[in-house]
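ingest -> fold -> write
write: protein_1
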Amino acid sequence: MARVTDHDLDPAVMRKQYRSQIVSEESLAEDPMRQFAQWFQQAADANLFEPNAMVVSTATADGRPSSRTVLLKQFDERGFVFFTNYDSRKGREIDENPHVALLFPWHPIARQVIVTGTAARIGRDETAAYFRSRPHGSQLGAWASEQSAVIASRAELDRRYAELADRYPEGEQVPVPPQWGGLRVTPDAVEFWQGHENRLHDRLRYVLEAAHPDKWRLERLCP
């Protein structure tokens, strides 16, 4: 087996030239959620693996950040929705500090979407409707896992799941866990990033006008 040299793993020499069409201001929609819908459809059409995967970054009240990948499950003019255990690390941090960032890393098409905004819990009716749409096993998993809590072993997790599977067999309605639900991120800025040659990327950002909270300003950023 060939030995991997340090040079082979040197990130300083890893680079790609992105070859894409220039994104003009005139080509974008009037508001970021419509533009996101267009790019999201294009990402799906490009057969990206889980185009709804996004990095969610949160922070404690004193500013210590953390990040993880979750799946976007809904979006509309109100913002972006994902589901989690409210007692998880991200859930607790959002309770302390609602300011969050989202990142959609669509590397195969040299695109990113970066969102900043505030997160808040959605209504229980909305949460219940989505929970009912989940596969039976995923419903049980939401009960079995005390997300982010220390657990003694994988065997303990499997034991919890098996007990729940006995209690709620396939076909029987699983109640919605009270500590589990949706979070909606309402954006105040959304950046659309398109990679180009020579690192001259397009960065076009929608920002809410302070004086007009329903009006978006579009601005271009240097790459």
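write: protein_2
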Amino acid sequence: MIGVSETTEPDENADAAVLTTPQEWRVFLERYGELYVKVRADGEELVDLLDDDQLEVLDQEGRVELWLGEAPAREEALVESEERLGVRFPPSLRGFFLASDGWTRLDAWVDGVHPCDRVLWMRDSDAGGRVTETYDSIPGNEDDVQLFRRCVEIARGEDFWLLDPTDVGPDGEWAAYEFAPKYGNPTKYPSFSALFHSGYESMDEDDDGDEDMG
């Protein structure tokens, strides 16, 4: 449903440590992959992601380590992407790309994080342009439309992950948004790191709930 919406800001993750180095990201992403396989992946997806030995370990409730990302981006590729967009990425996003140039599974209605050479302005992407045009055609959505026009699209599926280079914190981090077009109401996070971490926290809570029920 499209209409006038207010930006919400979640209480959780606001105080989470911002991941900025490739080393910090790699440790976190390894934990993320392990938890995703345990909590989120369904049977068909597990068959695609794991080999027979890993499936057997998982079936026995053992730990399965799985890298759901890509090889690290080269610094040169990162700089080329920044020059193409006319920005310098915030520290947490740079650290992420230098650990993994994209990500294939997320705990959200988002397919994955784009590689750095596919990051683009939301207004210039096919899906982002359509959403911006649709929202712009309905009175009362002016704030959202302005947000879309100034944001970088970092991930997309049914929903979007967006970063706003005009809203920079004292640590150099850009404000980040998770946005579901059919519902409106963008959810704001203080950084890309906090946005990514929100999915991990959601899975971790579900895992704790499953253990309590067991």
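write: annotation protein_2
The first helix runs from residue 22 to 39.
The mean pLDDT is 86.
pipeline exit 0
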